[in-house]
From TrEMBL:
Database matches in InterPro entries: HTH_LacI, Lambda_DNA-bd_dom_sf, Peripla_BP/Lac1_sug-bd_dom, Peripla_BP_I
Keywords, ordered alphabetically: DNA-binding, Transcription, Transcription regulation
One Pfam family hit: LacI
Gene Ontology MF, one: DNA-binding transcription factor activity
Organismal lineage: Bacteria, Pseudomonadati, Bacteroidota, Sphingobacteriia, Sphingobacteriales
Domain called HTH lacI-type: residue spans: 9-63
Natural source organism: Pedobacter ginsengisoli
Domain of life: Bacteria
Designated name of the protein: LacI family transcriptional regulator
Amino acid sequence: MRKINFGVLTIKDIAKALNVSVSSVSKALKDSHEISEKTRKLIQDYAKKHNFQPNPMAQSLRHGNSRSIGIVVPEIDNPFFSQVINGIESIANKKQYNISISQTHESYEVEKRNIQHLTTRAITGLLISLSAETKNIDHIKALHVQGLPIVFFDRVNEEINTHKVVVNNFQGAYDGTTELIKSGYKRIAHITSSRNSFVTSERLKGYRAALKENNIKPQAAYVKYCAHSGREPDEIGTAIDELLKTDNKPDAIFTASDRITTTTLSMLNKRGISIPNEMALLGFTNTQFASDLNPSLSTVFQPGFEMGERAMEMLIGIIESKRPIEEFQTTELPAIVIGRNSSLPIISLP
């Protein structure tokens, strides 16, 4: 058996390694009975051993340009991601592309499985925001090497050289924390998402920078991580209870995601904590009902719809380019602080 030294295994590589025809490999991988059981098993075992994945670009060419885009998001019912999807759809409809949406529920394994499923449907390109559990992106790198156009949005990774669309997470967190400080709050806690997330890292940096600039020493006990980005309410409840039990408990909480922000508001209310009299609250959220909540919720607003538009435009640019694209860019959108009753200035409180 010949040894093949390719970074990404192709059907031709398998055929060469096993001294069989390309047609036989293709039939075996489709589990066709047109070849012998012995040959079919030999090919399938080799493909499995060497982690063979069908080339999505080759599939797309065989079927003609499917004009189908795969979208992978953590959760569709998250207001931010639903707005991103709306932005993607607005461009897809104009350009006559179809979209297939899958959600990871913050699971790395589900993310891998969903992406594999999307590629078997001969997608033309992939838009993805990584799950909270994702550390290793080899499953995405393999597709990128094979030539599948990919654009990251919101939760990105720097290991792949491609277009990315993010909000200015550092500045948004810096401005949000500064808003609380200007309103008179000094003991500001931070409830955030998974430790390994790019978004978590940037927002934590912005939070700490605002404290230091205002001569407030960051307290490690005031920073709480939610491994599932708030998808499991108990982890937020635990974070809140730990903060309330600290000797010098916070007078404000700055939260780092949609679900964490709205769940924190609900849990503080359920625990009988008066907002903002006993605890102010300000955080990232795109809920349309922020002004209708009790109290009205101070937020760092992210332009989700625009993010979706930009990401889709960038992906179509890669797909429809007549020349290989060698220069990629990261588009950074602004995050805007909107102050409401949940973070009223201390001087204004009764």
